[in-house]
């Protein structure tokens, strides 16, 4: 199960990018190009990860470093797509509600990581903090619409 999870997620990421590219092909050339490059990079990443998994290639620096860099670039593309798509379309109230929800997730995750009752929830707390920090990074690039444009 765990050996298929990462390759499947990367393939789904590639599909997502190509769907975005198809939807924006004629209406938004900048987003189309961003999605096309993101999809191509995700497709290459999925091929590499699938080959590494199938052939049971030991993961050394020559595989891990390019995949890590590609992952960071993908994250940057997701931030750019979110910023392009939501800029000026989210009300200030909704924006702040989401910010507060993300901050609450971070706090709950920290409590789960450092509570003394059981170590079993440490992984859940760590995952929650990681996801919340990634969400905050993406959301912080969204510009809410100004109050005059309600």
Descriptive report:
By secondary structure, the chain is mostly helical. It has two domains: about 1-85; about 90-150. Helix content is about 80%, strand content about 0%. The chain contains five helices and no strands. Helix 2 (about 30-55) runs antiparallel to helix 3. The longest helix has 27 residues, at about 30-55. The chain is flat, with a radius of gyration of 19 Å. The termini are far apart. The relative contact order is 0.10. The model has no long low-confidence stretch (mean pLDDT about 90).
Q: Helix fraction?
A: over 70%
Which ranges are low-confidence, i.e. pLDDT below 50, for 5 or more consecutive residues?
none
Largest sheet: none
Anisotropy-based shape: flat
User: How many discrete structural domains?
Assistant: 2
Q: What is the percentage of strand-forming residues?
A: under 5%
Number of H/I helices: 5
Rg over C-alpha atoms, rounded to the nearest angstrom: 19 Å
- Count the E strands: 0
Q: Give me the secondary-structure category.
A: mainly alpha
Rounded mean pLDDT is: 92
Please give the alpha-carbon distance between the first and last residues: 47 Å
Order of helices and strands: HHHHH
């Amino acid at each position: 199960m765990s050996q298929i999870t990462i390759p499947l997620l990367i393939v789904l990421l590639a599909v997502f990018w190509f769907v975005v590219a198809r939807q924006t092909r004629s209406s938004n050339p900048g987003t189309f190009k961003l999605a096309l490059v993101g999809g191509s990079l995700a497709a290459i990443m999925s091929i590499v990860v699938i080959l590494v998994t199938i052939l049971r290639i030991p993961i050394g620096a020559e595989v891990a470093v390019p995949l890590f860099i590609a992952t960071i670039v993908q994250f940057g593309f997701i931030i750019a797509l979110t910023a392009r798509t939501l800029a000026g379309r989210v009300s200030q109230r909704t924006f702040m509600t989401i910010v507060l929800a993300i901050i609450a997730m971070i706090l709950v995750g920290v409590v789960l990581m450092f509570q003394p009752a059981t170590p079993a929830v440490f992984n859940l707390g760590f995952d929650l903090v990681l996801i919340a920090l990634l969400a905050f990074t993406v959301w912080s690039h969204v510009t809410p619409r100004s109050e005059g444009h309600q």
